[in-house]
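User: I'm putting together a small comparison set for a docking exercise, and I want a reference complex before I start. The sequence is below, and the ligand is zinc ion. Could you produce the 3D structure with the ligand included, as structure tokens?
Assistant: Of course. I'll restate your input first, then give the structure tokens for the complex.
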Amino acid sequence: MSFKKVKTEAEKAQDEVADLCSRLVQFNSAHPEGRTDECVQFIKDYFEEHGIENDVHANNPVKPNIVAKLKGSSGRKVLWVGHLDVVPEGKPEGWTYPAYSGKITDDGLIYGRGASDMKGACAAAMVSARILNEFGLLDNNVEFWFTVDEEIGGVDGARWLAESGRLKGDVCVIGDGNGGGRELPSIDLGCKGGAGTKLISRGKTAHGSTPYLGDNAIRKLIEVIPWVEKIKNYRLELPKELEGPIASSIDFYMRTQKIETQEQKEAVKRLFHYPTVACNIINGGVKTNVVPDYAEAQLDIRLTPGSKPQKVKERIEELVKEAGVPGVEAIVRAGETAGYHESPDSPFANQLAETLEKATGKKPVFKILTGGTDAVSIKQFTGIPCLGYGTSLTGMAHQPDEYVTVENLVLGIKVYAGFPLAYEG
Ligand SMILES: [Zn+2]
């Protein structure tokens, strides 16, 4: 089976993939409910119509996952994983077309919540399964998985599938994220991880009119936060093999994100060699006339894969000590590793890069995602190597007026159907 044939089939499927993406968008699978039963039924009907073997796996009846299974003659198995759940649409005023319209425009855009993140990629994977099925017996076994709950950590989705032993394979392509389209093709080598930190401040309550009799927990908390933020100057120790991908990641984000100020530019340059830190939740106080005896803050601290989270944790604890404010302590959630990453030199990475080059005519770069995908739990529970290639567009995920281009979805089919043919282990 040649890549040329995949290319021809993918280009013929332009209207089909646009229609499937639009139809998937029309099923509201937004959290907090995040139900995927309608989407899964729709996908199942498509697979049945095309004679594709499939199974539904549900840990929660309204949140099923579905897999398409294609037979191969070798013992190898290639997985593809994508998610069907989406984030809420936000205010209707933000949308030119209603959020679940799935509107297809004349210039080849599909609008709606999830078009980019990532029902578009799921539509491309459905078509890929159909094309590969029509090719007959393949060399590799291939499974396309459509999951729930990615946006909330994979509870009944990838995490459950991985933990319960349902996901088995040699390599896994993650369809999430922004693969740079035709212009800037890129493969995701890994995802950052976290060292989430909670600061707890304890003081002594008093009447608001006599603050000198109390010990204000909020005031102490506010004093310590800037000390913890100094972690952004802690230089991370990173594996040598990631220096190349880090340089290309910085270049990718510089070119694709909306970077306007010098300060933002500097932040992108430091994005992988240093932790990022954002104090995103503060709680404390009960009444204006009561001096609070308790307050807490939660900081989102992100680390590059391959760095040493335990050392960062130690440094954060030191910083809190250095602040010298009694009654404030830090609880740092840090594991042995942060996120995950694959080697840029593995046969898997090379073969996926070759497929992407055939599909776009350009040599792809490797990058590291700043956020997490289903790959993190798949890697954690199964050890299956995961690389990402997504059809999403820059700056689209979780935004109002989210859209995707039909062109990107056709590209997605070429990669998702092309790679299982190219993979040699
Ligand atoms: Zn996503």
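The chain has a mean pLDDT of 96. Residues 108 and 406 are 5 Å apart (CA to CA).
User: Thanks, that's exactly what I needed.
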